[in-house]
Amino acid sequence: MNDARTDSAVRGAGASAVTLPEAAAAHPSGGGRRRPAPGPVALVVAGGLSVQFGSAVAVLLMPRAGALGVVTLRLVLAAVVLLAVCRPRVRGYGRADWGTVLAFGAAMAGMNVLFYQAADRIPLGAAVTLEVLGPLVLSVIASRRLVSLVWAGLALAGVLLLSGGGFDRLDPVGAAFALAAGAMWAAYIVFSARTGRRFPQADGLALAMAFGAVLTVPLGVAEAGAKLLVPSTVGLGLAVALMSSVLPYTLELLALRRLPAPTFAVLMSLEPAIAATAGFLVLHQALSVTDALAIALVIAASMGAVRSQVAKK
Fold it and tell me: Which sequence spans correspond to the domains of the chain?
């Protein structure tokens, strides 16, 4: 679920930032033994759990504020929190830096708007399974190996199972939104890595979140209006913002500085399973055996495609 640009960006981020393992190496303790730092894999997994359970809470909030209203609350409140915590500086950056962070914010806004439109129409596990096809397609194209066609076929089999042989079982508009969100997810991965290289700490994330919030405010106001200001709605929106934006995006940004992009992509492949679990536990969206098999096929295809790309290198 990545391309060569993502891999290059992550390598650049690792070369320009002092990571926790490097800090530990600079301060040895215990007779010269290095203290192990929290692993980047744990950061990605924690981020995945947070974002998918946050998405489940967002679905519960949609009857109050609508899908676009939820996106607006999520991004606006997340931006407020991140700007207050990070206090990013805005001077000293070039045009390319600002172009990167604005593209990151636009990808973030687009991904959220499209995904919540999908989640409002189809089960959460199905939405994420279709969404993950966007990064998967990029990985297959970047690999340029015959075996990639096997992974593409496996993913297609999973999608056909999920849709019951067609998209009559799933709302076709919801499925289309999920696929479009997948394309934006691929862009998010690319620009998240580039932003992590160009901006210190989570400064770039805070600035991108603010830009994404600005883009979504007109949409949310048009759909929900004054409902966005109801205290209980704002409270739930803040929970969604923290679970689905502030925590996971920060963890992923930090992980991308220390984790090879292919490994990150493999971990992202687990998102459909996490989403299906969240949908079952929070929204009571039960999975059939066929649905579970379909999700497993897409996950296997994603992992296989990424590993094929790594083997080529």
Answer: 39-312
